[in-house]
Amino acid sequence: MSNLNTRMPTGNDVTQRIGLKPAFSNNLFEQMLQPANLQQAWRQVRANKGAAGDDGMTVDEFPAWVKSGGWETVKSELYSGDYQPKPVRRVEIEKPDGGKRLLGIPTVTDRVIQQAIAQVLTPIFDPTFSEHSYGFRAGRNGQQAVKQVQQTIKQKRRIAVDVDLSKFFDRVNHDLLMSLLNRWVHDKQLKQLIARYLRAGFIDNQLFHETREGVPQGGPLSPLLANIMLDPLDKELERRNHKFARYADDFIILVKSQRAGERVLQSVTHYLQNRLKLVINTQKSKVVKTSESKFLGFTFKNGHIKWHPNTLLKFKQRIRELTNRNWGVSMSYQLFKTSQYIRGWINYFGIANSYQLCCDLDHWIRRRVRMAYWRQWRKPRTKVRNLMRLGVHVQAAVACGVTSKGPWRSSKTPGINQALSNEFLTKAGLVTLREGWIKLHYSE
Q1: Is the four-CA dihedral 378, 380, 384, 389 of positive or negative sign?
Q2: pLDDT averaged over the chain?
Q3: Phi/psi of residue 74, each to 5°?
Q4: CB 283: neighbour CB atoms within 10 A?
Q5: Could you tell me which residues come within 8 angstroms of residue 280 by beta carbon, excluding any fewer than 6 positions away?
Q6: 11, 17 contact by CB (below 8 A)
Q7: CB under 8 Å, gap of 24 or more: what pairs does 298-304 form?
Q8: In the beta sheet, which residues pair with residue 298?
Q9: What is the DSSP string of 242-299?
Q10: Alpha carbon of 376 to those of 217, 407, 415: distances in Å?
Q11: Alpha-carbon torsion (331, 332, 335, 341), positive or negative
Q12: For 77, what's the count of Cα atoms within 13 Å in the CB-facing half-sphere?
């Protein structure tokens, strides 16, 4: 399982490359364990990297483990039905709203097996999914979902029904999910293996916990299972002729009036609770104008895509962390990490109509970076010497170096702006939101 390319396979890619059947089959387990399918699964896991699971094995250590015969033992256990997936290692990550999202990190071995299963099942299920489903599907992304919402709003649907699923991935009903799988998957061995992954449990603070419900986020199979679980919702909304877009468990329905929105919220809540056994967060679920809605970090005003205030708040909080004057790392590393974050952020959020805001934020970011430089220079003598080295006249350099102003106020003075000019920061590696926005909107 090595020396292979890392491009994410689409359903058709996998079907054509490995000869999988694009419909339900009774020998999916055998297809899952085909060498070509396992090789492709390993390539994807290696490309995704990720932390070690509960057994401590890293992605880099996996090939040596395979050569030592470890995989042959696992393969034998898979065929005999004795293989038991390892519990996932549970970690918490910060959510934009200040809460915590629970992630489960499977072992590398289980990630390869899950990826191999997903590659077999994707060609079967993906063609049956709704056109309004954009999450975790080849050729689809969140930006497309946001743009679809924008186009729907232009059809005079300016009221948004925002339904919040409370801890969706932690509360998926296993029996219901397996019954949905059973519609297309007739292979008992594969279904038994999937059921074992659902019940594998998790390790938290070195203690084992059973999992009687939920699909832990973090494994390669979880996104597909989530789409399978929510596909009946998509079909029900289509049957009712609703206009909507869904990305994983985040979805929005667009209607023409507040009254219609209240009616839809009530009926959809009833469907989710009674048919799919999911829990609705009644405090966050609401009917609002689209200008007050939030979908995948965006909102919509006067027909334009805008950043939601919480999105902007989170961005600025992260920039403050990356440009913290007391971080204790070199400025070259600080600029590298800051630019890395800016580049990734604008590549996604750049679809918003926010050119002027990009320019304003760039100005603020540069001032934050100048402050970090100023703080790192510390002593007045060092400050004066560096300012002069960067072309500042000696009198202006001395005036800046001995000032009693703090780093934030000093970052605005003419001498520091001359030394740490926009051109200097660009050469040092700082990228701008403005350049990323222009590239997205005007590149050929």
Answers
A1: negative
A2: 90
A3: -65, -45
A4: 8
A5: 163, 164, 165, 166, 269, 272, 273
A6: no
A7: 298/146, 298/349, 298/351, 298/352, 300/149, 300/150, 300/153, 303/150, 303/153, 303/154, 304/150, 304/352, 304/353
A8: 295, 307
A9: -EEEEETTEEEEEESSHHHHHHHHHHHHHHHHHTS---B-TTT-EEEEGGG--BTTEE
A10: 40, 10, 17
A11: negative
A12: 13
37: which 2 tokens?
A: 């399918």
With H, G, I as helix, E, B as strand and everything else as coil, classify residue 304: strand
Measured CA to CA, the distance from residue 90 to residue 206 in angstroms comes to: 10
Which residues share a beta bridge with 295? 298
pLDDT band of 124, cuts 50, 70, 90: very high
pLDDT band at 298 (very low <50, low <70, confident <90, very high): very high
Q: How far apart are the C-alpha atoms of 426 and 432, rounded to whole Å? A: 8
Token pair belonging to 157: 């649907």
φ and ψ of 373, to 5 deg: -55, -50
Quote the pLDDT of residue 444: 47
Per the structure block, which two tokens stand in for 94?
């910060």
377: left (phi over 0), alpha (psi -120 to 50) or beta: alpha
6: confidence class by pLDDT, cuts 50, 70, 90:
very low
pLDDT of residue 406: 86
The 3-state DSSP class for residue 94 equals strand
Q: How many CA atoms lie within 13 A of 121 on its CB side?
A: 29
Q: Which residues contact 232 (CB under 8 A, 6 or more apart)?
A: 180, 275, 276
Residues in the chain: 444
Both tokens of 135, joined, read 């999450």
Give the whole-angstrom CA distance, residue 121 versus residue 21.
10
